[in-house]
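cron nightly-structures :: item 1 of 1
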Amino acid sequence: MRKNKGYTLVEMLIVLAIMAVLSGLAVVSVGLIRKAKIQDAITTFDSQLTNLWMTTKATASQQQSMKAEFVLNGTTYELKIVDGAKTVSTTEYEKWDKYVTIKYNGADCTSKVTIQFDKSTGAVVNGNGAGDYQFYDKTGNLVATIHLDSITGNHYIK
């Protein structure tokens, strides 16, 4: 019987090939997860605008009471929907900061941006919050822009 003195060159090459394939799959998976998180941030922000618009039209207690406050608190994006003095909902997006940077009309969102819709027309009140919300990935590439029209209150992803 032959004494086992270690691995052969062929066995080592096979193991290295398997490791290369698995690491390649891991890199691709991480990239796909990052893209999915960015897309989630974009669609969530867009759906929150739709929610605010519809809630204002349907249930706002006063003509101009419903508004959204979009705030960057340190590393957390926060979207509050407020009816008068009462906060209806607060959504925090702590994980967005890991994947995306949001700019409002080209400037960093470092303070509160208030979006308010008119109950009767759906227009953005005084144009506050209307404009472009740009979503950048962490490498600085523009991924998407959500445009909020001041006259109609319509918004779309471009």
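cron nightly-structures :: done
The chain has a mean pLDDT of 79.
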